[in-house]
Amino acid sequence: MTPSVATSSPALQPATQVALVDALVEQGWYVGRGVIDLTLCNALNNELLHRAAYNGLDEAGIGRGQQHLLRKDIRSDAIHWLDRESAAQRRYLDAMSELQQALNHALFLGLFEYEAHFAHYPPGAFYQRHLDSFRGRANRVISTVGYLTPDWPSDGGGEMVIYHPDDPSQEVARVVPEAGTFACFLSETIPHEVLPTRCPRTSIAGWFRRNASLGGVLDPAR
């Protein structure tokens, strides 16, 4: 049974949009703790763990469309694309739709859709340093990560490391994957990785996209 989701409080803290836009302009990335409503985090986390327990996740790969490959030496998480099938998913995606409008209004980015998936990292899983979009092929423009795991231990590992856009060897932030934390960054300029986790790690990875289809050739979302 899908857990009920309280809607009396906003899915994202109201001050998030202003702080997020300012951070993207100033440094290309944003991290906020306590941003996502914890009741919503709990409902999404339960849904993801239920899928993990009943083989409802797919092995994650790299690349899109015909270039999609399974490379466990690069990433070893499992995913499920959000499809609005639960109240919790709809509430989260509606919040992202509002954020998309705010980003377009403030930064004139022309974002036209948002895609997202659950991500489950079992103990030992990781994702090597990478970019979410190649320069000059700005399909994915802004990446987001919403963290769902409650009571994350200090020795749990699984941090997302954000690197300087001009020096991929220089670490600029390390994000602890605790419930309520929300991260956002420019997809084609901010290198990042997920360090090996010692505990089951749950999150939602998402991307605001432009329409990069040209000459009748479709640019796949996935």
TrEMBL record:
Range of residues in the leader sequence: none
Annotated source species: Vreelandella boliviensis LC1
Cytoplasm recorded as keyword: no
Record's protein name: 2OG-Fe(II) oxygenase
Cofactor or coenzyme needed: L-ascorbate
Record domain Fe2OG dioxygenase: where: 107-210
InterPro entries according to UniProt: HIF_prolyl_hydroxylases (IPR051559), Oxoglu/Fe-dep_dioxygenase_dom (IPR005123), Pro_4_hyd_alph (IPR006620), Pro_4_hyd_alph_FE2OG_OXY (IPR044862)
GO biological process, one term: cellular response to hypoxia
Keywords for the protein's UniProt record, in alphabetical order: Dioxygenase, Iron, Metal-binding, Oxidoreductase, Vitamin C
GO terms for MF: ferrous iron binding; L-ascorbic acid binding; peptidyl-proline dioxygenase activity
Pfam families: 2OG-FeII_Oxy_3
SMART domains for this protein: P4Hc
Statement: the UniProt record of this protein carries the keyword Iron: yes
